[in-house]
Amino acid sequence: MIPPEAVRAVRDAPSVVVLTGAGVSAESGVPTFRDAARGLWAKYDPTRLATPEAFEADPELVSRWYDWRRERVAACAPNPGHHASAEMERWLTSMRRGFTLLTQNVDRLHHAAGSRAIVELHGSIWIWRCLGCGTEREDRSMPFAEYPPRCADCGGIRRPGVVWFGEALPHAALDAAERAMRGCGIFLSVGTSSLVYPAAGYARQAHARGIPTLEINAEPTPISPMVTWSIQGKSGEVLPELLRLAMEA
Ligand code: BJW
Ligand code: ZN
Hints:
By secondary structure, the chain is α/β, with parallel strands linked by helices.
């Protein structure tokens, strides 16, 4: 199921870049982004809620949605896909080879699994930023006492520290991703629909530079015809197997 050439490419690459998306957290029970409005939220379109315009129009509604998602994520633990990614990092760094995890996920389950070199492209639902004084704080308390939550310092409205459609990604994250891409020897795209840019552009960038690309996803995506190897399957099964084979090779 995993092409031996892909295994060898992971084993031999001087540096590995892994891009993850919501599919990696799906086996932990975290709904994928496009599935992140269920139950009471079923009548809403996540791509419309995750916008600055939606927050401006109705900050209470949008912060209640994030609080609902925070509660769901808080009940979830990392799965074998997260653990394999952390293990791959430990294995490669022990051999003084490069490893960077670019994640679009906002749930911090990669952190919980022990990954270290993480670039959060789309921020985190655990960070809240005050629109009054700009303070950013991790806040895992829930439910919030009020919606939208307010800043303890200045009383301003706090918004989730995530990147919404139409917003620029954090400079530091973009710089770190660019650095990782410069030294990338193999690029892995895991559990992402590859629809959202700029993240979806990294696989294309790698391909254009002749770097081997490997996709692991439950279903075909727009990058599937382009990548060197496209494996259809669950990240929690394929990633651990890929790691096992590469370590044994
Ligand atoms: C499994 C599985 C299992 C299930 N195993 N797999 C170029 C072209 C066209 C448009 C644009 C472009 N450049 C920019 C844009 C606009 C826009 C964009 O990309 N739009 C597209 C929809 C067309 N991009 C932006 O607006 C970005 N900003 C930007 O470019 O700014 C420019 C700028 C510069 C300077 C000043 C100002 C502006 C920002 C994008 C931010 C995205 N944010 C979100 C929300 C985060 C907060 C939140 O979660 O609420 O990030 S949107 C959402 O999509 C979320 C995700 O991180 C992201 C990616 O989704 P992901 O992870 O791929 O999830 P899914 O659900 O789509 O897919 C999961 C996949 O897993 C599926 O395929 C399943 O099959 C699979 N799966 N189980 C393996 N077990
Ligand atoms: Zn404040």
